Amino acid sequence: MLVSIVLGSALVVGLIAGGRLGNIRSWSLRATGVGLLAYAAQALMFTRWGTDWLGEWTPIAYMVTLFGALVFLLLNRRVTGVSLLLAGLLLNVLVISANGGRMPASTVALGLAGHTEAASLLGAQGILANCTLMSSGTRFNILGDWIVIRLTSTAGSAYSIGDMVAMAGGALLVFGMVRGKSDSDVEEAETRPGA
Fold first, then answer.
1. What is the SS3 assignment for 99?
2. Distance between CA atoms of residues 72 and 70, nearest Å
3. Helix or strand or coil: residue 88?
4. What is the DSSP secondary-structure string of 2-24?
5. Eight-class DSSP state of 132
6. Are 167 and 173 in contact (CB under 8 A)?
7. Under DSSP, is residue 113 helix (H, G, I), strand (E, B) or coil?
8. What is the pTM assigned to this prediction?
9. Residue 147: which H helix or E strand, with range?
10. pLDDT tier for residue 193 given thresholds of 50, 70 and 90
């Protein structure tokens, strides 16, 4: 929900700052299918059905989707906001890779964010979906899910530093898309003969 609020706010601010929804059509991102597939796979993966179906393969599938997202972002790194999105994703990939394909998550943070059932399950089982119980045995805990953002009594979560950086990049991307042409379009125009 937080991602939707951040990106929606960036859209509104972009429109208030003189942008137009029609400007989004002028953007051309590379390997869009790879990015959308990675996003859709993660969205499906972290449903109850997805994690039940994947079982012990969840960490491997998670890393594959992260790799797809990295490819998409690397190919589009010159676009406004994407380098920040990429930095956030790289922080998350670092901590997830160091912890066997799962993000260390604080049960205290999950509980404070309103996810008491998930916090209890994670505490009891040690793993839950793409998360592993944050402890002295997990690596790079500072990059794990410990930042509490609670929007309402039922909406909130624990986020990582990488999540926060990536959301800021996503907001810049949306703002830039609404405001006008992409950086790659501007570079292309500048390198044309007679420009």
1. coil
2. 5
3. helix
4. HHHHHHHHHHHHHHHTT--GGGG
5. E
6. no
7. coil
8. 0.87
9. strand 147-150
10. low
Concatenating the DSSP letter of every residue in 51-62 gives HHHHGGGHHHHH
List the chain domain ranges: 2-179
Length in residues, the chain: 195
**Residue 194 token pair:** 């007679």
What is the torsion angle, in degrees rounded to the nearest 10, for the CA atoms of residue 189, residue 191, residue 193 and residue 195? 50
Q: Where are the beta strands (DSSP E) in 19-108?
A: 103-105
What integer pLDDT is reported at residue 194 of this predicted model? 54
Neighbours of 111 (CB within 10 A): 18
Nearest to 140 by CA among 160, 126, 156, 159: 160
Cα separation, 21 vs 193, whole angstroms: 30
State the amino acid at position 134 in one-letter form: M
What pLDDT digit, counting tens, does each position of 149-163 carry? 998 877 789 999 999
First-to-last alpha carbon distance for the chain, in angstroms, is 44
Residues 93-125 have pLDDT tens digits of 999 999 999 999 999 999 999 999 999 999 999
* Rounded Cα–Cα distance for residues 173 and 82 (Å): 7
